[in-house]
Specification:
Number of helices: 5
Oligomer: single chain
Radius of gyration: 28 Å
Order of helices and strands: EEEEHEHEEHHEHE
Distance between the termini: 63 Å
Number of domains: 2
Strand content: 15-25%
Largest sheet: 5 strands, mixed
Structural class: alpha/beta
Helix content: 40-55%
Length: 194
Amino acid sequence: MYAGSGKIYRLGSECPLPYRSPLFFSRENTARIGRFTVPFPFSAILGILFIPLICIAAPLSIPVTFVSRYFSRRSEKRFAARMKTVGRWLTWNEALSEIEHGRGTLIGEYLSAEGPYLLWWTPDDVSAISLHPCCFEELPWLWESDEFFDWCRSRFTDPAAGTASIVDLTGMDRRSVSRALESLQTDHRCVSTC
């Protein structure tokens, strides 16, 4: 028996309710995992077993994130040192000074959504000489045209054949750099590639 609107009805009676949830221990209480339907006892057991897995994985993800970020920054430093040996290197202050004097363009290169992020400076005005529409977005993977990215890569940011200089962000506060780049993107002095 169940209660509804102040009266007691028997299960299966002629009085329909707007919504009747399945009973907890019934065969109707199932979990769907992709194309598979898991019946009640197994779905409850799987849910209970999943809780300790989350309690173990969540604390482990924090040091894994720090280690991953450490290796990403380390590879960025090594790459900057390699570019310094071939004469394609600038400090952040030097690049910002050039941009403030109206010379050149900064190119923000996202190698993937998680990183690493490389910042390049070229003496050319990229938006003026590009044959393709430039990407001034902060998240370039939402951009629709790959021609601009390929053109920037082959002409400016290619480590072997490009002409742009890497901007060394070692020791810089990434948030302040990000805020400066946002204002430069609105002035079309900074473009993004991926």
